[in-house]
Amino acid sequence: MSSISRFRSRAQRLLGIAGLIAGVGVTQQTADFVPILELEKPVYVANESLRFWIGVTARSTIPDYLTSTCILHTIRPDGTNSDEHVSWPIDGDASRGWKGGWGLGKQAAIGRYLVSFEFAGLRTPSQAIEIVPDPLAGRIDARWVFADSKSGGGIHARSVVLHVENNTGRTLRFAKPGLLDSDVWLKVRTFQPRSEESTFVPQFALLRKDEIPSYSFDKLDWDNQTRWPMITVPAGGSVDRPLMLASAYSFRDSQDYEFTIETVLTIFVGEPGDPDARLFPMRIPVSAMTRFRW
Fold this sequence. Notes:
CATH architecture of the largest domain: Sandwich
Helix content: 10-25%
Distance between the termini: 93 Å
Number of domains: 2
Largest sheet: 6 strands, mixed
Radius of gyration: 26 Å
Structural class: mainly beta
Number of helices: 2
Strand content: 35-45%
CATH class of the largest domain: Mainly Beta
């Protein structure tokens, strides 16, 4: 073998060894990070605010070059595929891992979905999500109702009421709005000057101090909902939860506003042993918009 051939052979071996070492380094590094996918329940109902959890657990700091590798893989009921790139969280420090809520879009069709989450080339096992017709459609009336009280042309009070009516034939319970995972948020627009702001309603505007627990749960389920501050609505009954808008946002006199208020009610109907218990908790979105001059 010529000296040139021996040199090439040795160089190729060295390059191969270097490649193996680099590969081991990358494998060891990515092994420190594990993608996660957690379902809140296996069956959801149509028009529910569907949510599951995705994220990454980390045993070391996640390098910046991996933050663009998050992908949600979905196989829809019709067999088509979706590979949705998920942006890296911008709130807080996610360099040592994170977990956040995700969904299937606003108009997810009825049927069976398979979802998995990918990070750094690693994928979670696929999990099935079933969306079924809502058996309680039209039997839970949840809405915001705006109310004014005026005297002599001046506004003495302006408020909004969360009205929940139960026509399911069974007891209905929902988490008190304003608590963790039951936030109430606002979108406020003005026109002169033009501006738009989104913000949460502060707890003090929605709850008394004795209604705010000193503990929390990762999620509500049949096992712990009896230990969480809930509002009970008997069969055929209704409840109203008022909110004074002046305590929720700093309005300016003689200003025109477009005002949107939203929440998601975490609802349980019936008892844990009922045939449809697996559908709960059900997350029902409630929103309303109005325009007014303050």
